[in-house]
Amino acid sequence: MDIKRIIQHSLFTDWQTHRAFSQECLHAIERAIHESEKLHDGEIRFAIEGSLDGLRLIKGQSSRERAIEVFSQLRVWDTERNNGVLVYVLLADHAVEIVADRGIHAKVGDEFWFTICQNMQRTFSKAQFETGALEGVAALASVIGHHFPSNETFANELSDVPVMLT
């Protein structure tokens, strides 16, 4: 049990989350995802969580473990070509995680996802949340488009609206 982490999460407020990711920022992310998905057959989901609840913290749940849980809850795995990608942001931990379904992950691998996460974290550390998110979506769109280019029958399988988890 990490007492410092528990305190950090306990003191993190919804106000801080909404300040980092305003409604305008969320709309910009949604538009970027929607426009990017016209260029590829993948699916991008974006989830933001300010902090974890006490039980998750006591159990020592990592940001990666939580991202995998959210990937399942949002059914990002439920795409025809197994090419869904989740961007998960846990603000209290200053963490960005990417969880990719097996179809796209097999073609890209961990190192690429890690690089995108690092770039987003670096931009977020300057309080440039919209810029970091949009750059992350653009990087994902580029690689998904390379491996799963769009065909004529664009079907949006998952919502493009970013999810604010509370």
- The helix fraction, in percent, is 40-55%
**Count of domain modules:** 1
CATH architecture: Roll
- Work out the radius of gyration: 15 Å
Count, helices: 8
Q: What is the mean predicted local confidence, pLDDT?
A: 94
Record the strand order, biggest sheet.
3-2-1-4
CATH class reads Alpha Beta
How many DSSP E strands? 4
Looking at the structure, the CATH topology is Diaminopimelate Epimerase, Chain A, domain 1
Helices and strands, with pairings:
Layout: H1 3-11, H2 14-20, H3 23-36, E1 43-49, H4 54-58, H5 63-73, E2 84-90, E3 95-100, H6 102-108, H7 110-124, H8 129-147, E4 163-165
Helix pairs in contact: 3-8, 7-8
What does this entry look like structurally?
With 166 residues, the protein is of the alpha/beta class. The protein has a single domain, classed as Diaminopimelate Epimerase, Chain A, domain 1, CATH 3.10.310.50. The chain has eight helices and four strands. The chain has helices spanning 3-11, 14-20, 23-36, 54-58, 63-73, 102-108, 110-124, 129-147, and strands at 43-49, 84-90, 95-100, 163-165. The chain has a four-stranded mixed sheet, with helices on both faces. The longest helix is centred in the C-terminal third of the chain and has 19 residues, at 129-147.
